[in-house]
Write a structure and sequence with these properties.
The strands form 2 sheets. Strands 1, 2, 3, 4, 7 and 8 form a 6-stranded mixed sheet that branches. The protein has a two-stranded antiparallel ribbon with strand order 5-6. It has one domain (50-208). The chain is of the alpha+beta class. It has helices spanning 2-73, 158-162, and strands at 87-88, 97-99, 124-125, 152-157, 168-173, 176-181, 185-193, 200-208. It contains 2 helices and 8 strands; from the N terminus they run αββββαββββ.
């Protein structure tokens, strides 16, 4: 009897030891699941925030494209007074208007610093020639969810660069020759900014006028 009592006492202690190990393992598993769930939630939140920031930048770029097109439709177009042969003007009144160098190995819009908002910038800010506005933080931190700075753009006069007289197109149809002057082609390149200036979106279009 004494032997059986000692055996049961030993077996009970062993069971209590195994229960403790099982409980600890369950706690570790639950903790790992909790950490994984938290990381997934943080990744989702981070992805949503990045998407929102890029949408802000894209909206700015699209707004700058529209602003440039409105400026080009203006009768007093600064491109008419542009005196440079190649490159982008940095002077008031013609800032942001460019004549590309057709023999260059790199496109002009790839060489422009759109982050530059100083008085010697090669790009023009939205509203420079139209008076339109675009809400932004103007480089000041802690201004909420809005662009870090106003979107900027350049306008390349492709027609003037090619011939000085616009794009002349000649075609033949059923033996007859047709010539049409479609005016100038302009390549507009715009950059919008997210809540941080390093979040950028570039949009480009060809505008004929």
């Amino acid at each position: 009897m004494k032997y059986l009592s000692s055996w049961h006492h030993y077996f009970d202690r062993q069971q209590r030891g195994m229960s403790l190990i099982v409980v600890l393992l369950l706690l570790v598993i639950v903790s790992m699941l909790g950490v994984a769930s938290m990381q997934i939630s943080l990744m989702g939140e981070r992805g949503a925030r990045n998407d929102r920031d890029m949408q802000v930048a894209w909206q700015g770029a699209e707004a700058a494209l529209t602003d440039a097109q409105i400026g080009l439709r203006n009768a007093s177009n600064p491109i008419d007074t542009l005196v440079i042969d190649t490159g982008c003007s940095t002077t008031a009144g013609t800032r942001g208007f460019c004549r590309p160098n057709l023999s260059a190995t790199k496109a002009l819009w790839l060489t422009v610093d759109f982050n530059d908002a100083t008085g010697t910038a090669e790009s023009a800010a939205l509203g420079t020639y139209t008076g339109r506005t675009f809400a932004n933080a103007n480089g000041v931190a802690n201004k909420g969810i809005q662009p870090a700075q106003a979107p900027r753009y350049i306008v390349e006069d492709l027609g003037s660069a090619a011939s000085g007289q616009g794009q002349q197109v000649t075609s033949n149809y059923n033996g007859a020759s047709f010539s049409s002057n479609f005016g100038h082609d302009y390549r507009i390149t715009a950059m919008g900014f997210g809540p941080r200036s390093d979040i950028q979106a570039v949009a480009q279009t060809i505008f004929r006028h």
